[in-house]
């Protein structure tokens, strides 16, 4: 672990307090790593500021001393965007966790960067409203991190990404200046929208310290269907059929291997006895009986067409929650296999052929690798999870998966897709950025970073090497 000059540690302690400067091995390991497991955390210190002013003071000191900073939220990222492996200062925003200035007319609330996603969801519910951005890590991910990665999740098909719910945000730049961007306005065409630049920038332009988040109405009586299908093309036919008749709030998919592992390790029941290659999970509102009748008619139509072999529908809230767990518990379930994750996307209509090509390449070259598929098929985003075979050293596994990634991203490039649909680039996808972005785009990104962060101290080495 890198050692800081005692004078710098003393200066940092003067800003945040001695107990808020952590240098012990346990804290550095805890705060220096996200959910990726291919890097060794090695920050020089972990800082826990309690105000925006303290964040500004830390950044100014870091800029003066040329010290790199890694902003840290809930550390639930999957691309090593919050990894501090080279003696950086970790700026953990856990204490900026207040909710304030709720406005019922505007349906907005001000959130500190450290507010947990679930905390915001519960607050919205208490006000009779709804925050729709949702994912498996909602109980630990933080709003600042969600904004910095433009988190998506399971409701994107209806409600969009995190950026669609950020009415305003405050950003501390790499020089310690505070930008108050958009200020909650619904319409604002006065020049460039710098707020949108900060969203998804993975902390490379500055530290998101506060955001004004939008809320919406609470959905009425959500119902969940799980349908079994013979192949991905059938899944797409089901999506087309349901979307034509019903406004969906979610359309997810997962493979039989994914279902097998979740059922075996999470004490859950299979949705039905029929074994299928793929499964679709569909969520929609049913404010009245007519909505369910329409859904059942669509289900029967899909069965008649041979697109669906079997299915089940929730009869209660608890059943709906258990059906969701079949999809939402996949990531946690496969963690012991140290999965190498690829978060890829293309246009929705091309997903079946896209997925088939990717799977064929992996199976042909690494037949011993087990592949778990799942994703937000309704928005063209699929998650390829390659599980590490028992006994294979992790460095060798990572190297082999890196070779797989090159082949996979060549397919992504051919389909005009993205090497990172929602997890961000971080360290893990950095060398593959050119498969989704042109050389000119990357140079413009570097120029933008130079403006926001002239000394290059904000999360250096993430997304690209400046």
UniProtKB/TrEMBL annotation:
GO biological process: respiratory electron transport chain
Taxonomic superkingdom: Bacteria
Enzyme nomenclature, EC number: 1.1.99.39
Enzymatic reactions: (R)-2-hydroxyglutarate + A = 2-oxoglutarate + AH2
Enzyme class at the top of the EC tree: oxidoreductase
FAD-binding PCMH-type domain: residues covered: 39-218
InterPro entries named among the record's database cross-references: FAD-bd_oxidored_4_C, FAD-bd_PCMH, FAD-bd_PCMH-like_sf, FAD-bd_PCMH_sub1, FAD-bd_PCMH_sub2, FAD-linked_Oxase-like_C, FAD-oxidored/transferase_4, Oxid_FAD_bind_N
One GO MF term: (R)-2-hydroxyglutarate dehydrogenase activity
UniProt entry keywords in alphabetical sequence: FAD, Flavoprotein, Metal-binding, Oxidoreductase, Zinc
The protein's required cofactors: FAD
Family: Belongs to the FAD-binding oxidoreductase/transferase type 4 family.
Subunit-level organization: Homodimer.
Name used for this protein in its record: D-2-hydroxyglutarate dehydrogenase
């Amino acid at each position: 672990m890198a050692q800081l000059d005692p004078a710098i540690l003393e200066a940092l302690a003067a800003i945040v307090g001695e107990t808020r400067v952590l240098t012990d091995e346990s804290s550095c390991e805890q705060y220096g790593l996200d959910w990726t497991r291919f890097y060794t955390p090695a920050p020089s210190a972990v800082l826990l500021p309690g105000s925006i002013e303290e964040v500004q003071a830390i950044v100014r000191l870091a800029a003066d001393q040329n010290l790199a900073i890694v902003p840290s939220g809930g550390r639930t990222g999957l691309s090593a965007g919050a990894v501090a492996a080279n003696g950086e200062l970790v700026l953990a925003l856990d204490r900026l966790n207040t909710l304030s200035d709720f406005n019922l007319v505007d349906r907005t609330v001000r959130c500190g960067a450290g507010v947990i996603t679930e905390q915001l969801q519960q607050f919205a519910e208490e006000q009779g409203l709804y925050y729709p951005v949702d994912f498996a890590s909602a109980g630990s991910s933080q709003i600042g991190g969600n904004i910095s990665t433009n988190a998506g999740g399971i409701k994107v098909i209806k409600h969009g990404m995190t950026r669609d719910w950020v009415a305003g945000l405050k950003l501390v730049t790499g020089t310690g200046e505070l930008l108050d961007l958009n200020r909650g306005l619904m319409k604002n065409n006065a020049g460039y929208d710098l707020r949108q630049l900060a969203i998804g920038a993975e902390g490379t332009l500055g530290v998101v310290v506060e955001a004004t988040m939008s809320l919406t109405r609470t959905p009425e009586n959500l119902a969940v269907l799980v349908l079994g299908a013979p192949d991905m093309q059938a899944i797409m036919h089901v999506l087309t059929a349901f979307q034509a008749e019903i406004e969906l709030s979610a359309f997810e998919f997962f493979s039989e291997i994914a279902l097998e592992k979740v059922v075996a390790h999470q004490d859950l029941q299979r949705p039905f006895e029929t074994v299928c290659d793929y499964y679709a999970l569909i969520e929609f509102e049913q404010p009245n009986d007519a909505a369910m009748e329409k859904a059942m008619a669509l289900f029967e139509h899909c069965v008649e067409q041979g697109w669906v072999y079997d299915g089940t529908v929730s009869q209660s809230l608890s059943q709906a929650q258990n059906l969701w767990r079949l999809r939402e518990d996949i990531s946690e379930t496969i963690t012991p296999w140290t999965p190498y994750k690829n978060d890829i996307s293309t246009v929705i209509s091309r997903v079946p052929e896209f997925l088939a090509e990717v799977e064929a390449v992996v199976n042909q070259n690494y037949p011993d690798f087990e592949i778990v598929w799942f994703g937000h098929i309704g928005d063209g985003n699929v998650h390829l999870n390659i599980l590490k075979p028992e006994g294979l050293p992790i460095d060798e596994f990572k190297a082999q998966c890196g070779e797989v990634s090159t082949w996979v991203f060549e397919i992504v490039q051919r389909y005009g897709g993205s090497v990172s649909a929602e997890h961000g680039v971080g360290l893990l996808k950095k060398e593959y950025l050119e498969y989704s972005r042109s050389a000119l785009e990357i140079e413009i990104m570097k120029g933008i970073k130079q403006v926001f962060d002239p000394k290059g101290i904000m999360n250096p080495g993430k997304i690209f090497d400046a």
